[in-house]
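User: Could you walk me through two proteins back to back? I'd like the raw sequence and the structure tokens for each, with a short line separating them so I can tell where one ends and the next begins.

Assistant: Of course. Protein one, sequence then structure:
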Amino acid sequence: MIVANSNDNTVSVLLNLGNGLFSSKTAYTTGYGPYSVAVGDVNLDSNLDIVAANYGGNTVSVLLNLGNGTFSSQTTYATGTDPKSVAVSDLNLDNKADMIVANSNDNTVSVLLNLGNGAFSSQTIYTSGNNPYSVAVGDLNHDSNVDIIVANYGGSTVSVLLNRGNGTFSNQTTYLTGSGSSSVTVGDVNLDSNLDIIVANYGGNTVSVLLNRGNGTFSNQTTYSTGSGPYSVAVGDVN
């Protein structure tokens, strides 16, 4: 397990002991105010590395795996203002894990392309909706390219940015969600082989489901009631 600790500027790593139990934490320093963490093999050594979005520092931290479950000191890269969420995926079909960051206070997402050795390019910035809180990725239109989906808390929308095929992205298309969309994920919820969008609406006490029409455009939301203040959402076959 890897955990972002926003108040002490660290990530914790807890190694699995093999029976569903975990070791005590090992802490690694990040930038200021880590808010989100993702994992991926960013330097092609078959070991999972750690990426953290540092909300207070306007950076992302990359901690390379030394091959035994311990990690190097961080390398930081500039992002937009107040990054709240980070994802990793190969955006330009070069078999390298790139970074995507939601910058909550300047209404953008940053894309940092992997240079091939675990180092990253400077950010390229794309406009999102108001106050992006969460980012997810997936191939929404069956062109074998990974697209970007952003939950915009202040706008109560999700933004879809389609990949042009070279790691650059189209202007956003926005869809209405419930109030205060705080988290987004994707999954095929109706078994039609298309990735649908699922959003947690913190202000509305609902989750929204937007079905993919098969070409990367989406139906109007269907909402379902939750408890009070839903902040995060995940999908999986639990039954």
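----
Protein two, same layout:
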Amino acid sequence: MKQFFTVIGGMGTMATELYIKMINRKTPATKDQEYLDYILVNYSTIPDRSSYIMNPELNDNPMPYLIEILQQQSRLNPEFFVLTCNTAHYFFEELEAATPIPILHMPRLAVERIADFKKSGARVGIIGTEGTIKNGIYDPFIEEAGYEVVHPTQDIQDLVSELIFDKVKAANDYDTTLYFTILDRMFKELTCDVVLLGCTELSLVEDFESYQDGLVIDPQDVLADVTVNMAMALRQVAE
């Protein structure tokens, strides 16, 4: 197989499944042979990223696992890697150094999408795991683009964590009432102009029922757009 890409998924598995559905939906195919060539690695046993970031002394470090799988898959020589986990981008520099294969950077791509809708100075809210929020995985890209970063208050963050871990991950419960409450508070209480979904479990809820009362950007959806565009361009060059 030539002109393929590799998806490093399993963080979590249901969110990875959604990403695969997204790229298949977005691919302009009318027969089997027109879909994209890719390898999916559903590495679900990688230690939890947020738990390690928040308490590194008490939790297993996922970075060696991520480096190992990237180096294993690099031997197959994909055109690029896709990393379908926001929090895993905390380790991006180390992962990038571990392979000669390019890795798409989901947070950076998502922030670039904001310019399609908002001008410099917009208040950009970010919701995700505590590891993503407290370590500012999105913050430098938001600030470099000329926007203002808005983090959730602790009580909103507690609701986000409940939705991600207790509802979606633990029970496969896409609690849209809780999801809409979180977003209502981000837009109304914190006066955000746009909110980024900084966790792929939130992408699952947004895909299940979209929020209609404010501009929400789903980084996983942006990543799927870029993936399809890059893969289609590579295919055209090969032809």
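Residues 5-105+221-238 form a domain with the Rossmann fold fold (CATH 3.40.50.1860).

Let me know if you want the two compared in more detail.
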